[in-house]
Design brief:
This protein has a domain of 231 residues: TIM Barrel, CATH 3.20.20.70. It has an eight-stranded parallel β-sheet, sandwiched between helices. A two-stranded antiparallel sheet has the order 2-3. Helix 5 runs parallel beside helix 6 and helix 6 packs parallel to helix 7. The chain is α/β, with parallel strands linked by helices and 334 residues long. The termini are far apart. One of its GO terms (molecular function) is 4-hydroxy-tetrahydrodipicolinate synthase activity. It comes from Mycobacterium sherrisii. InterPro entries: Aldolase_TIM (IPR013785), DapA-like (IPR002220).
């Protein structure tokens, strides 16, 4: 674990490779309980069977907005226990976003004490007074904790930081060392790099990696939070092989690989279900039920309550049909 003072030096060497954002498997009436056996299996699958070097815990895919404080703490502790038993060097990233700064401090301090390596704070979801409010939020958390911090700039918050606002947070909060840019606005990430060249940026728009941005140092060699385990199996390591080509600066080979092995087509075939609820098509969401349905297609356990908790809707049948067809076409299921 990096302290706040060590954060930026530590991040340069430690943040590398695929970081799996874990879903939360529910069970019981209304999904009020967590299926801990299923969750442990998921962690072991990502770190052991797939060999991915990083985890991203209790964030959007995990439905942090529907979890209690105690559940979020328990999920992080189990992830650390299971993953480090397999790979003591695994990098564990904890999302500690919360509706109040005090709850965020409690979760961040717990991540620090439990042995997580870095805590990410999603732009506050409620009543945020622009960049000034987000900066104040980060300063408050940093003043009460001693762990590396990251930003998670997601449109699901309802407010997306400008490059100048993110750069200001980096300049004024020394613990901040990385950001997951989830707004799919590559020009903004490039501007952010110019304003804060020391900040490690993960851009969710994958095209920038093919454009050589990793070679140019605009983006970092780590996927700070993605669902990489849903793009491959231990028998067909499509996503890992593709990412290794990108990391090796073999960009033409990577593009050929993604085309020839179906990864590019898979993005089209899946449709928008992971991040778009049709009745609110202008809103970016982490539709956890869709991620979990995809996991079930690959044989991963998702608990006997397959849906998201409220306030998310249940995944419709048409989504399941489309996603099943996409996985069959990719060849990960028959």
């Amino acid at each position: 674990m990096a302290t706040a003072a060590q954060a930026r030096t530590w991040a340069r060497g430690a943040l590398r490779g695929i970081g799996d954002s874990l879903y939360t498997p529910f069970r019981g009436t209304d999904g009020d309980d967590i299926d801990w056996d299923a969750y442990r299996t998921l962690v072991r699958y990502c770190i052991g069977d797939l060999g991915h070097p990083m985890l991203w815990c209790t964030s959007g895919i995990a439905e942090f907005w529907s979890l209690t404080i105690d559940e979020r703490k328990d999920l992080l502790e189990v992830a650390i226990e299971e993953s480090r038993a397999i790979n003591p060097d695994v990098v564990v990233q904890a999302c500690t976003a919360a509706m109040s700064a005090k709850d965020c401090v409690e979760l961040t301090r717990h991540a620090q004490e439990a042995g997580a390596d870095i805590a990410y704070i999603q732009t506050p979801m409620m009543e945020v007074h622009g960049g000034d409010g987000v900066l104040r939020f980060f300063k408050y958390v940093a003043a009460h904790t001693d762990i590396a911090l990251g930003m998670f700039n997601s449109p699901s918050s309802g407010y997306v930081l400008t490059p100048a606002e993110s750069a200001r947070i980096y300049a004024e909060v020394p613990a901040v060392c990385a950001t997951k840019e989830g707004a799919f606005r590559p020009a903004g990430s490039r501007m952010l790099h110019e304003l804060a060249p020391g900040l490690l940026v993960w851009e969710c728009d994958k095209t920038v990696y093919r454009a050589g941005w990793l070679r140019d140092g605009i983006v970092c060699p780590a996927q700070l939070g993605t669902a990489g385990y849903l793009f491959e199996t231990p028998q067909r390591r499509l996503f890992s092989d593709y990412w290794d080509l990108v990391l090796g600066d073999k960009l033409l080979e990577a593009m050929d690989y993604a085309r020839d092995n179906g990864l590019d087509q898979f993005d089209l075939d899946l449709g928008p279900w992971w991040t778009c609820y049709p009745a609110r098509s202008d809103y970016f969401t982490h539709w956890a039920g869709a991620f979990k349905y995809a996991a079930s297609l690959l044989g991963l356990p998702i608990g006997d309550y397959p849906h998201s908790r409220p306030p998310q809707a249940e995944l419709p049948a048409e989504a399941k049909v489309q996603m099943t067809a996409a996985y069959r076409r990719l060849g990960l299921i028959t």
